[in-house]
Write a structure and sequence with these properties.
The chain is an alpha/beta fold. Helices cover about 40% and strands about 25% of the residues. Strand 15 (about 365-370), helix 13 (about 380-395) and strand 16 form a beta-alpha-beta unit.
Length: about 450
């Protein structure tokens, strides 16, 4: 029996030129097999960022009749995703429309588009955030930036980078809005890196996803992020995996635009990232990004089980235990996550069955670890994990990848060669304890 296709209603304006709002939401959400219906709030010849003399047709008067027709036809939605709303009247009408949908179980995603960098957009007066807050209080998930939260909650806005305590305090204060989950965009803890933080108030799960910051200001990135977030969540991904996927989609779109030198008025090149995004969402049903203490414990447990079996007869007695302790203990994995390594865990028949670790830096994707349990080998997890790393590298502009493999691990070498890697050089590394790693360095272009 096939699963029921989910239907999302996207409530945004349409900018005929300039990739934002519905122009982004429709293709991105649809790409993962989620039906995306639309409620246009206005039609503009271009978006308002950088263009002058654009046309604007307000569709406020159409919102209530459209909703009435849907009711008459018995049309229902599994989720609603709201973005830019240009007036108190539109907020009231959208709230009126979605309230009965929420009562029937529809998930409500709200992006309270109002401002950025500590200022409201010029079309909004100082009383507008109070109106937007009413809509936010209907949401299951909010996706604001810090400017929007500061105006709705009345705390002083600060420019980043931010202390972790400042962001923790904002997350705690945001509970006032009543949403079960929140994703805050445009957060930076250190110069040169930016991303998103998230929290599930029901479970207490929280985390952050940071990527290298790309110079410049780019229109429509919030809509790309929000659409990717909604599409992934409605596809059944965890909050942690969803945020990572949405950040990668957005950063990849910015990176392509920056590299091409495109006029930023036309938005970011998300189109060339849609296939990778959709592939990542599909694969995440078998994979998840490590983000919690439970994930760290699972990785350490798998390493203690898999490594002795993999390296039997390849390395001296005692070296496997030493390497697991030094490189794959819980403390070691936590340290690597803090240093910018990503871990992805594979699941087989409901159990964690393998994992991958990688880091992307200066155009190089380095795959640090790739292990699959004996019971799960031959099922395609090694390929799936490695392809996930490839896509993560491509999405942020990496053009090559490398890894190391024990020179005696002939099965792994054959697998990597089948994935297009070639031997680059021999590499002997002193790892302490009287042990060395005798490896091949292998790599390929992405």
């Amino acid at each position: 029996m096939s699963m029921k296709q989910r239907r999302v209603l996207a409530v945004h304006d349409i900018s005929c030129v300039g990739r934002c709002s519905l122009t982004a939401a429709l293709p991105i959400i649809s790409s993962v097999g989620v039906e995306c219906s639309v409620l246009p709030t206005a039609v503009l010849s271009t978006h308002t960022g950088g263009f002058t003399g654009f046309t604007f047709r307000d569709l406020t008067e159409d919102i209530r009749p459209i909703g009435a027709h849907w009711d008459a036809e018995g049309i229902t939605f599994d989720a609603v995703y709201t973005g830019f709303l240009g007036s108190f009247e539109q907020i009231d009408l959208v709230e009126e429309l979605i309230s009965p949908m929420a009562e029937k179980g529809a998930r409500i995603y709200v992006d309270p588009v109002m401002g950025d960098r500590g200022k409201l957009y010029s079309v909004f007066g100082p009383d507008f955030p109070a109106g937007m807050r009413r809509l936010c209080e209907k949401a299951d998930l909010l996706m604001p930036n810090l400017t929007e939260l500061a105006f709705m909650l009345g705390f002083p806005y600060e420019d980043g980078p931010y202390t972790r305590q400042y962001v923790e305090d904002v997350l705690e204060k945001s509970k006032e809005l009543g949403a079960r989950r929140i994703v805050i965009t445009g957060v930076s803890f250190e110069k040169g890196k930016v991303g998103a933080v998230y929290k599930d108030y029901d479970t207490g799960e929280s985390g952050s996803v940071m990527r290298p910051e790309i110079p410049g200001y780019y229109h429509g990135t919030g809509d790309v992020f929000g659409s990717a977030l909604v599409g992934a969540l409605e596809s059944g991904l965890s909050l942690a995996d969803t945020v990572g996927t949405a950040v990668d989609m957005t950063v990849g779109s910015i990176a392509r635009t920056y590299a091409a030198g495109t006029d930023v008025r036309f938005g970011v090149n998300f189109e060339c990232g849609i296939l990778g995004y959709a592939s990542a969402v599909r694969s995440m049903s078998r994979l998840r990004r490590a983000s919690t203490d439970e994930d760290v414990k699972s990785i350490a447990t798998m390493a203690a089980s898999i490594w002795p079996e993999v390296y039997v007869g390849m390395i001296p007695d005692g070296q496997t235990e030493y390497m697991v302790y030094r490189f794959q203990s819980e403390d070691a994995v936590r340290r690597q996550l803090q240093e910018g390594y990503a871990y992805v865990i594979a699941r087989d028949s409901g159990k964690d069955a393998g994992y991958l670790s990688y880091k992307i830096e200066d155009g190089l994707l380095f795959v640090s670890k790739l292990y699959v349990s004996a019971a799960a080998r031959g099922k395609g997890y090694g390929r799936l994990l490695l392809e996930t790393a490839f896509e993560a590298g491509r999405s942020v502009g990496a053009d090559r990848m490398e890894l190391t493999v024990n020179r005696n691990n002939l099965d792994a070498i054959g697998f990597y060669e089948g994935m297009g890697l070639r031997k680059l050089r021999k590499q002997v590394t002193d790892i302490g304890g009287g042990f060395v790693m005798d490896d091949y360095r292998m790599g390929r272009e992405l």
